[in-house]
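User: What would this chain look like folded?
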Amino acid sequence: MFLGRDKGFCANSVHTMEINEEYTLPLNKNDILPKNKLDRGLFVLMTVLIPALTVWETFILFQYYPELNFNVFIHFLFGSFLSVNVLGNLYYLKKIDSSAKQKSLPAVLHANWKYCHFCQLNSPPRSYHCPVCDECILKRDQHCMFAGCCVGFYNHRYYFLAVVYAMLGSLCAALFQLPHCIESIGGFHLLPMLSLAAPHISLLFGFVSFYGFICAITQIVLLSAVVLTTYLLIVQIRCISNGQTIHEKKADIRLYDLGLKKNFVQILGMKWFIAIFWPFVSSPIKGDGIQFLTFYDLQEIKNV
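Assistant: Here's the prediction, encoded as structure tokens.
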């Protein structure tokens, strides 16, 4: 039983879903940094921390393998691939515009639409006003503080894949440097392991060296990133699997559940098999962010 359905929303005839290209924002130096202070800090943290951790992991790699060989090449190539995917998806998450202002919205308020007093426009279904971005977002999922923008119809793919690769990257980096970190803080004993819980206190009392302190801090950051991104990824997979946004999940609205494969294709686009590996490929999405196929539409198609 699907809850939260509004049968009045479904049109009498099944509407065709056109393939629309993404709308890009002309980013300049004034638009790159988010306007919100918290968003700006987290955005700078992400854009600085990811390259810094990549350089750090490369340094540790050459500590283990002082001579170039196949293992070094593969590890460096894989690490670079993960970093490029995280940064590339974050870039397009911010660059691709999912706001309702890009659309020519009707002046007449349709059924199941709502009027936004802040934007002074008629907002289509699944669209909501973001108080941080101060605009209505098509099929708004959430506001991403690390990118300083909202996740919506056109840029949801980039948020989802940025989370996927951030989780994989932080997990691989944490596992790779763990033996080196334990060795740097004094081995696998009680006192050195306690240093991982409070490395600043261990440094203060001389239990670890400054280099061991850096290793411990890096390990804590990576493990924290693994926990955070794993949680975000689980939430995203659950929502996308059910054809929901974060808001629709909270309201238990399952009107737009088209099946597992179609739900993911709606996010990743028609070229999903390439898009999941490379953020720079164009993968158009079916639809315009205003009208959406519903569960009832699929039932009508099956009955034809």
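The two ends are 23 Å apart (CA to CA). If you want, I can go into more detail on any region.
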